[in-house]
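It is worth pausing here to work through a concrete case rather than discussing structure prediction in the abstract. The textbook approach is simple: state the sequence, then state the predicted structure, then interpret. We follow exactly that order.
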Amino acid sequence: MRIAMFTNNYKPFLGGVPISIERLAQGLRQLGHTVYVFAPRYGTEQDEAFVIRYRSRKKRLKGGIVVPDIFDLSIETFFCVLEFDLIHVHHPMLMGQLAQRLARRYNLPVVYTFHTRYEEYLHYIGMLDRLQKLGTGSRLKAVRSICAKVFSVCRKLVLQHNRFFTNRCDLVFTPTPGMKDFLQEHGTVTDIEILPTGLTEYDFQYNADEVERIRVQYGRPGKYLFCTVSRLEKEKNINFILEGLKQLKANKGDCFRLLVIGDGSAKAELEREAVKLGLQDNLEFIGSIPHNEIRNFYQACSIFLFASQSETQGIVLLEAMAAGLPVLAVKGSGVSDIVENGEHGFVTENDVLLWVSHLEKLLGDSNIRKKMSDEARKEAVLYLHSSVAKTAEYGYQKVLGNERQGVLWVAQG
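Step two, the predicted structure:
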């Protein structure tokens, strides 16, 4: 098959969607398919085979997200010349809308992967971000009420657009069963299959010398080393982790350090919050790390902390599990489909004291940590990208009317 993948963001932008696209494309190519990725220009990217770059707008959204120029005529020029069998789109807006227009024009099926709960990301739009801050900070009840209603209407419009878009696709992939349920509850009637972001064999490997260097550089004798990997943005709920660690320090003393890996517009605010909470000596803001090096940081730590409630899957959870890290997470979309509470770690409600009590339980029992570490690795193996690519292949064959017998993805393997 000849497959065109359309995306609003890709490398060098750091995020789960670019990782997912790259791994799926690699897996499909290993199966003998031709895959081209239509991705935006950033000005810092390197030329790469099978990646076609189109123009992006100069003005960027919060967090360094570019806005695709869907009127770049080179997109259709390349698309027409390369003669594709199928379009796989990764965003419902902008490139997603362009993909559906091209699909109708050239009579091709469209497959869509639901990566992102966009209704949870409205604060990336400047006007809505200001509106939310106005409502939160106002002392006037009427102002707070009006702002909340406007924000609620915008959320509903996003969900309605999502329903409209998915029902104009031939097949929808979601990374977890929970996200499949979410789409169906909000009106998607198109066939939905489960297609998680896969892991590579390298996610299970590490450099022992580099791991030791990280432990020496960032650890302290007699202290636990935790890590979290995330874009540093509001929706990732990192403030919750800081509040939890403040409580842990009050309960157990200065027994830990946390590596915060990632970057984003909230970094300065989080650094100030760490000082305010008395955690400046317990936290190390590492910044962005090349993806092929992150596995050494996972391996150097003993527990992975996570608090985001807006994930569709959370690939970093699986990467941490591949390194044998027990996970302590907050219950939210996508998380409970990956981390089985009590098996691969603990998943708690959005309650700081409850979350801290489970962290203390992990710290107090090395046998539990060892058992969860072993189970986490076993679970992560089920998500190798080679298996995920075969699931995508079966889905493509289905919409092309050439379905073969095969087993689609099952979360338990």
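Step three, interpretation. The radius of gyration is 22 Å. The longest strand covers residues 34-40.
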